[in-house]
Amino acid sequence: MAKRIDVSGLTAYYGSHKAIEDISMSVEPRSVTAFIGPSGCGKSTFLRTLNRMHEVTSGGRVEGKVLLDNEDLYGAGVDPVAVRREVGMVFQRPNPFPTMSIFDNVAAGLRLNGNYKKSELNDVVERSLRGANLWNEVKDRLNKPGSGLSGGQQQRLCIARAIAVEPKVLLMDEPCSALDPISTLAIEDLIGELKERFTIVIVTHNMQQAARVSDRTAFFNLAAVGQPGRLIEIDETERIFSNPSVQATEDYISGRFG
Amino acid sequence: MSTAAVTGKRRSTLRGASLPKWSPWAIGVGSIAVGLGISLAAGLDSSIQWALMAAVLFVLGTYVIAARVEGRRQAKDRVATSLVWVCFLLAVIPLASLVWETLKRGVKVFDVYFLTHSMGVVADTETGGGIYHAILGTLEQVGIATVIAVPIGVMTAVYLVEYGRGKLARAVTFFVDVMTGIPSIVAGLFVLSFWILILKMGYSGFAGSLALAILMMPVVVRSTEEMLKLVPNELREASLALGVPKWRTILKVVLPTSIGGITTGVMLAVARITGETAPVLLLVWGTNFINSDPFKDPQASLPLYIYQQYANSAGSGAAYDRAWAAALALIAFVMILNLVARGIARWKAPKTGR
């Protein structure tokens, strides 16, 4: 189910501006990998290159290779739509579809793709909402609009929506930055459960969060404003937070800058 | 000064003197009284003159009184408020008077008989007759124009917002702007020369629909474009990230989210072309008989009917009454359309309830 990701020599541009340069790393299946680093260092950009969402931004383009179980996402003839079905994404701000009910939001991925059996739909929705630890809170109001939920519930609804299409990899772009500590805890617990089924990559500004949820941590940095972001190091989370091999990582983690 | 009297003995730094709540009304009544007084004294008999004087006095009076009591900053604030009120009244008075005048004169012959009969056997100077043929013509012409203009307009807007990049998109935007400014008579002349004079198709409701569609299209493009731009990008990204193709994202997420606003825009465009007279005059030609076929032979339409009743009346009161009643029907039609549009917008608006 879960797939591994191997990135080699990846450079991403916005128009003529080089946002990230020459990034190579591997993400193990059924693990949580956290990206940390100062704002503007290209964590989110890099995350978006992993499911070809980067090119949705006007002027966005990518050089290099991203292998998903040895298949290059940027190879000739690869359909970005097919890539995004394998690699799901949860965004920084909860963004349920405002015209749809809670049920329809979760079912959206299947319905909009058109490849589902009607009889399965109820099961899939229930399974996904249970998977996102939201079922008990919303089971009595599945037909109410999703935008009526609280922020934390909306974010878990978005996670349910993302896992309903059974992706192989789940990308999370600062999923807790708009949430309070209780909702954050709920989502962190959820990440712990989800990693048994999915490969998870999470961008976060919260270093405690990275330490809590991730198996491996990657530190990104940029030399100066306007310079492209680079991967400084990636290692076991424990090592990064106790004994990083690069001085800049230690400076960042211990709060000496950034 | 009165400051001390209002705030008590000690001056508070946070609470200054303020005018009582009823003071704008008092100043308003006062300035109307002064305006009336001056115009009576000077022997002016136009109500516009005293009203304008009252308006100017109201603004000036507000400033002077507020500046004396409350200070200059609050005075400026009050002047802005009073200006807004004066402008509001200036805008509403003509509208109210127009509706009132049309109602007063239109109800004379406005009844079921009037709505269900044509002018078939009624001479222009006689009483009787009705607007059935004109309502039918208007509905058909506007309906066909809508069917032509809305799909083209909405798809153009979708192109501009979702796909358009570079030169082509800029060119389309430019031409839509140019089209917005086309006078309706020019659109009518264009269809006249192309459809009727070159292709020799003859006057018909459909020819009028073509010209109306030309007038309607840029309005639809513009309003739809604005509505599509309001759809947050996050929703598009959320859908794309689920592996939904772009065209399905637009169809199932972007358009449903903005459908309320798009409908409102379309209805306003419909309301706009319903009252167009010039192209209809040139292309539909008008008739006193019921012609339900928009593709063959002249038809009638409401604005055209109003014009013809007025022009052919030869001073007959019966024709004037019919023209006013038809005008009332036209206003009512447009108003109903607007209400329907609001209803749809409210019904389709993204839901926020719990």
Automatic annotation (TrEMBL), chain A:
Keywords from the named record: ATP-binding, Nucleotide-binding, Translocase, Transport
Domain ABC transporter, residue spans: 5-247
Transport found in the keyword field: yes
GO molecular function: ATP binding
PROSITE patterns from the UniProt entry: ABC_TRANSPORTER_1, ABC_TRANSPORTER_2
Family matches, as CDD domains: ABC_PstB_phosphate_transporter (cd03260)
Presence of the UniProt keyword Translocase in the record: yes
Domain of life: Bacteria
InterPro entries, per the entry: AAA+_ATPase, ABC_transporter-like_ATP-bd, ABC_transporter-like_CS, P-loop_NTPase, PstB-like
Protein name (record): Phosphate ABC transporter ATP-binding protein PstB
Gene name for this UniProt entry: pstB
TrEMBL record, chain B:
Species this chain originates from: Streptomyces glomeratus
PROSITE patterns, per database record: ABC_TM1 (PS50928)
Pfam hit, one: BPD_transp_1
Subcellular localization: Cell membrane
Keyword Nucleotide-binding: no
Lineage, uppermost ranks: Bacteria, Bacillati, Actinomycetota, Actinomycetes, Kitasatosporales
Superkingdom of origin: Bacteria
InterPro entries reported for this sequence: MetI-like (IPR000515), MetI-like_sf (IPR035906), Phosphate_PstA (IPR005672), Phosphate_transprt_permease (IPR051408)
Protein name as annotated: Phosphate transport system permease protein PstA
Primary residence: membrane
